[in-house]
Amino acid sequence: MYIEEIRMNRKWQAALSAAGVLGCLLMGALLAVPAGQSREVAWPTYGGDLGASKYSPADAITPQNVNGLQIAWQWEHGETPLEQYSTTPARFQNQPLMVDGVLYVTTPYNNAAALDAATGKELWRFDAGAVKLGGIPGSGFKHRAPALWRDARDGNRLRVLLNTRNQLFSLDARTGTPVKSFGRDGVVSLTEGYPRPISDVRHVNHGASPPIVYRDIVVVGSSIPDRYQLMNEPTGLVQAFDARSGKRLWTWNSIPQSPTDFGADTWEEGSWRFTGHANVWGPMSLDAARGLLYFGTSTPGNDYFGGRRPGKNEPAESIVCLDVNTGQRKWSFQMIHHGLWDYDNPAAPNLVTITVGGRRIDAVAQVTKQNFTYVFDRVTGEPVWPIVERPVPTDSDVPGEKVWPTQPFPTKPPAFGRQGVSLDDANDLTPEIKELALAEMKRYRIGPLFTPPSLRGTLQLPGDSGGANWSGAVWDQQTGWLYVRSKDEIRYNSIVASDRTDPFIDHTYSGHLPVARPGTKLGAIPLIKPPYGQLTAIDLNRGDIVWQIPLGEGSQAIRNHSLLKGVSLPARLGSAQTGGAILTGGGLLFVGGGDGYLYAFDKTNGRELWRGRLPSLNAENTMTYRTSAGRQFVLASTGGGADAWLVAFALEAK
Hints:
Blueprint: H1 2-9, H2 21-31, E1 55-56, E2 70-75, E3 97-99, E4 102-106, E5 112-116, E6 122-126, E7 147-151, E8 157-163, E9 167-172, E10 187-189, E11 212-214, E12 217-220, E13 237-242, E14 248-253, E15 285-287, E16 292-296, E17 318-323, E18 329-334, E19 350-356, E20 359-367, E21 373-377, E22 387-391, E23 406-410, H3 431-441, E24 458-460, E25 473-476, E26 481-487, E27 491-493, E28 496-497, E29 509-510, E30 533-539, E31 544-550, H4 556-559, E32 582-584, E33 588-592, E34 597-602, E35 608-613, E36 623-626, E37 632-640, E38 643-650
Parallel strand pairs: 1-32
Antiparallel strand pairs: 2-38, 3-4, 4-5, 5-6, 7-8, 8-9, 9-10, 11-12, 12-13, 13-14, 15-16, 16-17, 17-18, 19-20, 20-21, 22-23, 24-27, 25-26, 26-30, 28-29, 30-31, 32-33, 33-34, 34-35, 36-37, 37-38
């Protein structure tokens, strides 16, 4: 009764942003209850709206009063390691949704819960049973958000759509119980009908990204763990289901499945026939007015050795646009040819409207792990600014590897982080540290962006986790600026011969076998000089960087290191973490620093206006909403394992 009363008494107001107004209008049609006088501002979908703007018009918190923010409530998901299933909850990466005064949360173990948005009181919880499939290789258990849909044929009732490791659930938002008319008693399989056999264990949703909803269609991606490196691995499917019945409507395959499929001719020696992965594990975006779906694809197997898949390998590591009604490809653009660096596209593409050279363009912007921003006409896929093919290093010491000779470089905007490694990048916080860093760097292969992995070991910057990552970018239609959180962190990319003893690897060479890591004498101190994380504002009307600041104090392991005792360090070393920002109608950018604080910055210049202490490190996306009482909250998920909290900040209630 309690949750139904809350939902009956609180009216939802669509969170319209200029960045995704059409998408939000659709969300309003799907989710809104009859118009009233509510002051509520919802957060109805991951990314704030279907265009992934991460913007909220909520404006109760301003530069003038932000210093009054304090913790209003906290909620713990309560999940712990389970010895019987060999599982441990990973980082708490949830970004809740809020509609009608209720927060909808997912937990690391792929379960769902509903909370009172004003108090944090738990209203119900649903156990999806995903842990019974056992541990997840490599990435661990995590989940970032559900999706919401209203059933117009059933009293406009709200449904919570929860994708777990191998299933898609439809839950009644009032009670958290499965909707019996959906699939088989409220659930459909995500592994049935794969073009190649796939076990429930190996379809893990490791990216933990939520579904996306268009009218009565729910679309989900997939994930095959990188740990598996075998012939005839499953390919990455994007699947659409009827949100009411659970019937599968269409599938789109990330790897060609016949000689006539798009991209098949870019897989030399017919390697599309047995190559897997290239899945869509990141969040998606949607142009609701045009019925166009956008997402990024990942690296085909395996991530660092491509000797069994010569060629460009399209449409792997691409941005793809599909007709959401049919699953038919409209256009795509490949950012990485014959990927060897795990530079997949994990961020949701941002739908933007910009004015370039006096021409107004509905565009889509994709930020990437390699610190680029690619911008395209949303309908045609034509680049807004030229993207040029430039020669890259091709000399590989790995037998059988055929490195692709060029890669696509956008001419605008400029890169928002460092690319490639040289001795000039050596950490110089002290002369001793610089000497150690130089000696270590000289042990490995270094070079410009796209220097290939090697048997010797290559230092790769950005590393395989970015640059930018799944947290994506923030779009401000008012200014035409894109805000992106990124990190500068070296990856030691070493190729080793497989000894054929690992049942998960049958490749001749692999980049995932245990290898020594560099910097042992430096310990926690990075080989390169700071900053290690930054927040950047990019003007997409001009294609220029407006401002850039280091984000986060940096880890205490660095600051407290014996080699830095007595050394005066910069206030912000920057934190090499994921977790993105949001923008509010009050002109504030809220973002976790990866250092135990939630920050608020002035969107116009990046000036820090406030920081609030968190109970644990935050490396996840924040979110905000305003309740019907007019109180605005800013939420951050923190921690991992059994020690994790959802933390709500607000001004003192009046």
